Amino acid sequence: MSRAFVNEDNAAEQADLPVERQVSAQPNYVTPAGLEQLQAKVAELQKLLDQESAKGELADKQRQADLDRDWRYFKHRLQSAQVVALASSAEKVQIGNWVTFADEHDHQQRVQLVGEDQADAAHGLINWSSPLGRALLGAQVGDEVLWKRPAGDLVIEVLTIEIG
C-alpha cells in the first residue's frame, strides 16, 4: 500500500499501544493458591485502572494502556483457570506436590509443581509444563527421569514426594 493512503495520526496512536501479552496454549491448571493469586492480581489491576481513570486528563496514557493490557491478560487467565485439587497422595508426582530430587552429582533440590502464573523458580515453584515439571509429573519415589534442559539433558532421581 502506498504511504499516501496511511493515516499517520492513527499509526502514531498504534505505536503507543503496548504489545498484547501472549497467552500460553497449555491448559491453565492452577492450584487453589494460584487461583487466589490470579483473583488478587485482577483486583489489584482493576483498582489501579480505576485510579488512573479518576485522574481524567492528568492520567498517564501509557501507564493506563499498560495496566489495561495486563488486566485483560490476567482476566483471561482467571476465566480459563482450571483448579486442580491438591494431591491427596504422595504415590506419584502431581500438580501441587513438593518433590525432592537429586542429580547425578548428588545435588538435591526441592520444588513444587504449580500452574504457569504461580511459577517462581527462586522460591521453588515450578510450572508443571516446564521441562522440569514434565520430567517429574507422574514419577514415583526412586524413579530416574530425564530432565531435558537447554544446557543439556540431566538424569535426576525422585527422592521424596510430599502432599502440597
The profile of the biggest β sheet is:
5 strands, mixed
In total, the number of domains comes to 2
Instruction: Supply Rg.
Output: 21 Å
Query: What is the averaged pLDDT score?
Result: 88
The N- to C-terminal Cα distance equals 57 Å
Shape: elongated
Q: Reading side by side through the largest sheet, how are the strands ordered?
A: 5-4-3-7-6
**Helix content range of the residues, please?**
25-40%
Secondary-structure element order, as H and E? HEHHEEEEHEE
Q: How many beta-strand elements?
A: 7
In terms of per-residue confidence, which ranges show pLDDT below 50 for 5 or more consecutive residues? none
Class from secondary-structure proportions: alpha/beta
Strand content: 15-25%
How many helix segments?
A: 4
Polypeptide structure, described:
The chain is of the alpha/beta class and 164 residues long. The chain folds into two domains: 11-83; 98-162, Chitinase A, domain 3 (Roll), CATH 3.10.50.30. It has four helices and seven strands; from the N terminus they run H-E-H-H-E-E-E-E-H-E-E. Strands 5-4-3-7-6 form a five-stranded mixed sheet. It has a two-stranded parallel ribbon with strand order 1-2.
What order do the helices and strands come in, and which of them pair?
Layout: H1 8-16, E1 29-30, H2 32-54, H3 61-80, E2 82-83, E3 98-103, E4 108-114, E5 125-127, H4 131-136, E6 144-147, E7 154-162
Parallel strand pairs: 1-2, 4-5
Antiparallel strand pairs: 3-4, 3-7, 6-7
